[in-house]
Amino acid sequence: MATVAGVAVEPGHWIGGERVGSSQTFTDVSPIDERPIAEIARGGAQEAQAAVDAARRAFPSWSRTTREERARILHAIADGVEKRIEDLAQVETADNGALIRSHRRGVMPRVAHNFRFFADWLLKLGHEDFDTRGHTNHVSWDPAGVCALITPWNAPLMLATWKIAPALAAGNTVVLKPAEWTPLTASLLAGIAAEAGLPDGVFNVVQGYGAEVGGPLTAHPDVRRISFTGSVPTARAIAAAAAPHLTPLSLELGGKSPLVVFADADLDLAVDLAVEQYDNAGQVCLAATRLLVESSIADEFTERFIEKAGRIKQGDPRDAATDMGPQIHRRHLERVDGFVQRAKDAGARALIGGGPNDELGGLYYRPTLFTGASEGAEILTEEVFGPVLTLQTFDTEEQAIAMANGTRFGLAATLATGDPERARRVTERLVAGTVWVNCFFVRDLQAPFGGSRQSGMGREGGDWSFDFYCDLKNTVTAPWAK
């Protein structure tokens, strides 16, 4: 048993309703101070097989459980999450370095909401029967089977439960592989789910490295759905592993999203939206890291941005007054800094930031804004996934749209304008799974979520989640003889 932020956390896997160890462990390190906080069971092919076997055995009973009973248990899980919000917030802050105030106020309450939303959506899921030449068509959503869910480290529990909740609601069983840098709250969730009455084997957690446990899991012939959030290279490996069995995939990948600011925008709002992109130390896939600003207001926008960004308080995320915490891991900080130093070498100029925070040391990286990058430069086209933004200017609407769409990604886009007609014209032409107009990060679970181009494959949320996690069936019945 590990004790993290005063909370007891089981370091073993959760397979078939039991804690399971492994012959090897890996060290979980807190990004706050780079100190070890737990030794975690390190799974491999054997643990992946055991988890899939447990999920497969549990599937027949769980898939036949009534919708009402599945919904009741999901609400009970949400109740358990709400009772332990402080524990979950403390542990996740220690594990991934995100702000304690965000975990308390938004992230962990959203975890509970994920379960409640899909429990309630399940009860109203349906399609009206329709007639074909006197024959009745009836559409149903049949549980698919064992689902392998592979989740990232930047918002571990919230992003995991975006997948877990609809998969369980649909009547599937789940094997979750959390990111090796942030495994702890997944372990806590397993205990919460068991206490809520979720049957053994319906939800399983296997911990470890991607190649060692994720590879066997995604290549397993008994896995019928794979949902992954992470990088494009990993997604390619998962797709290759799934291909022999034609296992359906849902992939939410990287982004290089734009924030397009027109001269008719509310400039205070636009600056607020821009500085908000440093949220979670820039470790947000949806972040609008490319600031595209109309030339006529670029100087004023930049001045206001620098002034507001200068008020960001960086430091220990356990302090409720902190605005920005550390990067997740030494390897990740070095990756972010590599992008920054190469951008400088290529002629871009850092108006603010441009390196680690020497005053804080450790994994703290200063909020950075680049200008003057050459067209097609790496810093403009590749996802950094850190507190690094770029500023470019445009003169016409056509130019703004071309610049916004000028990467291989298409996850999200943000638009600041005071003209509703312009908003309509521009949003119609932006390549993105989500577009925000004069706002950012407003996310409703009934809306489709996913990316275009190399930002992903498929959509989840509302009916779209059930469409993915189920096999849709249409039953056609001839008229009955009287």
Distance between the termini: 67 Å
Helix coverage percent:
25-40%
Compute the CA-based radius of gyration. Answer: 23 Å
Instruction: Give average pLDDT, whole number.
Output: 97
Main CATH class of the largest domain: Alpha Beta
Sheet with the most strands, sense and barrel status: 7 strands, mixed
Keywords: Oxidoreductase
Organism: Actinomadura rubrisoli
Family: Belongs to the aldehyde dehydrogenase family.
InterPro entries: Ald_DH/histidinol_DH (IPR016161), Ald_DH_C (IPR016163), Ald_DH_CS_CYS (IPR016160), Ald_DH_CS_GLU (IPR029510), Ald_DH_N (IPR016162), Aldehyde_DH_dom (IPR015590)
What does this structure look like?
This protein is 39% helix and 22% strand. With 482 residues, it is an alpha/beta fold. It has two domains: 2-253 and 455-475, Aldehyde Dehydrogenase, Chain A, domain 1, CATH 3.40.605.10; 258-437, Aldehyde Dehydrogenase, Chain A, domain 2. The strands form seven sheets. It has a seven-stranded mixed sheet with strand order 16-17-18-15-14-20-21, sandwiched between helices. Strands 11-10-9-12-13-23 form a six-stranded mixed sheet, with helices on both faces. The longest helix has 25 residues, at 100-124. The N and C termini lie far apart (67 Å). The relative contact order is 0.13. The model has no long low-confidence stretch (mean pLDDT 97).
